[in-house]
Amino acid sequence: MIIPTAAVVLVAWAGSQGDPEKPETPPSTVAQQSSPATTSPAESPSTPAPQATPEVKETEPTAEEKAAAAAAAAEEAEALKAEEAAKALADLIASGTSEQQNALRSAEGYVGFSAFSKKGLIKQLKFEGYPDADAKWAADLVEVSWNDEALESAEGYLDFSAFSKSGLVKQLKFEGFTRKQADKAVDRVDVDWKEQAAKSAENYLEFSSFSRSGLIQQLKFEGFTQKQAEYGVKKAGL
Description:
- It is built from twelve helices and no strands.
- It is an all-alpha fold.
- InterPro entries: Ltp-like_HTH, WH-like_DNA-bd_sf.
- It holds the Pfam family Lipoprotein_Ltp.
């Protein structure tokens, strides 16, 4: 079979035109699609510079704050000290003999009922039959303020008798209180010494006769001052 030359030429031309359904993409377009987009440095967004953190300055505590802190620390230390002392006392009591612990219970009963000096309490416990060592052990460990005992004793004396200041100190010392305990108690007691002089003058006149000067001398002998004695005698009617 002989194909005409015109047909061959037509087929060749058709092949050179390519697939009609897929148009040829221009080279410039292909290059644009395949190349990734780049941004120039001038076009990139600027990153904000980090801001410096402001420096926080610690404020110096005020004098009131320092004083409050010192007071709180002192209170805490005192509480700890008291706790340690209480534990040591409890351990010491627990280590005592049964006789010593009985003496301690007796001592607690006595000071709960009346006012005692330490010496007076030891004497009372010994009078009850406790050995001297056990009586002293109990008096050392009984929980009591001897200053408060002296004050209670002073107030008790003034309830039923009249005393000058120095006379009351002597009486407390006679009961076994130390000079310091007696002085402190007499300073704390609420009393008018001039009225005590008047009360003492009246008591003397109930049992004996005195001249004015004689009664003043007697009151001064009891420890009242000149002014207190004169006031007392005058109020008693002399």
